[in-house]
Amino acid sequence: MKKSAGFYSFLAGLTTLFFPALLSAQIMDSKSIVAPGAQVEKLGDGYKFTEGPVADKDGNVFFTDQPNNKIHRWDAETGEFSVFSDNAGRANGMYFDKKGNLVACSDEDNQVWSFDKNGKPTVLVTDYEGKLLNGPNDLWIDPKGGIYLTDPMYKRDYWKRDPKMQQDGQHVYYLLPNGKKLIRVDANLKQPNGIIGTKDGKKLFIADIGDNKTYVYDIQKDGTLTNRKLFVPKGSDGMILDSEGNLYITGKGVTVFDKTGEQIAHFAISKGWTGNVCFGGKNNDLLFITAESAVYSLKMRVKGVK
C-alpha cells in the first residue's frame, strides 16, 4: 500500500503501455480455486487510487480512495456504492475488529483510527516512543484484539509535518489488546507493506516490498514474532488468505500461492498496479480487487477466512 501523487500518474502511464484491457479476463492456471467459468469483472471505476478493501460480517466491502480522502462501501446485496466516510484521515489498509469497528491506517497524521458504524473516528495510535510513525500502511487484527501494523516510508504531498523519516527505520509494530502499548516486533525489514495473519492467530505473513520478499512468522503468546522464514521471493502491496490457506499477493495483478509456497494461480488485471484484495460478497466467495482507479471482482470456489 503506497504511494505519492506522482506515483499514481506514473502507474497510469504504465497501464496504457503494458497492460491492455483484454488482460482483465485472463486467468492463469487456477487449479480449481476459481468458480467454473468465472472471469474478472469490473464493478466500478472513476476513483483516483483504490486501496484497503475489507468485508464486514455481511460481506459488504469497504475500500479507500486515498488521494480523495474517502472510504467507500460496496453493498453485497445490491452491488451499489456509497460513501462511508469523506474525512478518512487518508486511510489506507483497513480491518474490522470484533465489535464491528473499521480500523484504518490513516496516515494523514501518521496514525491508526477506528471508525464506528456511523463513520465517527477515534484515534488509537499517535506515535511510537514519543515520535510520529513514518506512515501506517497496512494492518491485521489478531484473535485477541491486538493490532499488527506496517510502517513504511512513502512521502505524501498532503503531509504538513517534516517529510523526512520519523523513526529510525521502516518497521512492524504490535498494539497490545489493551490498546495502551505499541511495541516493535520486527526492525529488520527494508520496507514492510502487506500483512495478514491466520485465523488461529499462530502465523503472520509480512511482505517486504522493498526487498521483494514475503516472510512467515510464528506468533508468540505476548504478540512478539519468532522463526521468521522466507515464504516466497516476491513482495506484495496487500495480502489475504483463503479458507484453504492459500496466500494472495498483489502488485502486477493477483498471484496465489498454496501453503507450501508454490504458485497456483495468477489473475491479470487491466490496470497497471493492483493495490489490494479481500474476500467479500454474501457467500464470502467473491474476490474483491482494488486496482488504481477501479475495483474488480472474481467469483471463487474457495471462500475467505471469517
Distance between the termini: 22 Å
Beta fraction of the residues?
35-45%
- Lateral arrangement of strands in the main beta sheet: 1-22-21-20-19
Form type: globular
Number of folding domains? Answer: 1
In percent, how helical is the residue content? under 10%
Largest sheet: 5 strands, antiparallel
Task: Annotate the secondary structure layout.
Elements: H1 5-18, E1 27-28, E2 41-45, E3 50-55, E4 61-65, E5 70-74, E6 81-85, E7 91-96, E8 102-106, E9 111-115, E10 121-125, E11 138-141, E12 147-151, E13 171-175, E14 182-186, E15 192-197, E16 203-208, E17 213-219, E18 225-232, E19 239-241, E20 247-251, E21 253-257, E22 263-267, E23 276-280, E24 286-291, E25 294-299
Antiparallel strand pairs: 1-22, 2-25, 3-4, 4-5, 5-6, 7-8, 8-9, 9-10, 11-12, 12-13, 13-14, 15-16, 16-17, 17-18, 19-20, 20-21, 21-22, 23-24, 24-25
Describe this protein with a few key phrases.
306 residues; mainly beta; Neuraminidase; five-stranded antiparallel beta sheet; four-stranded antiparallel beta sheet; 25 strands; disordered N terminus
Task: Offer a quick outline of the entry.
The protein is mainly β.
Protein architecture, described:
It is built from one helix and 25 strands. By secondary structure, the protein is mainly beta. The protein has a single domain, classed as Neuraminidase (6 Propeller). Strands 1-22-21-20-19 form a five-stranded antiparallel sheet, with no helix packed on it. A four-stranded antiparallel sheet has the order 2-25-24-23, with no helix packed on it. Strands 3-4-5-6 form a four-stranded antiparallel sheet, with no helix packed on it.
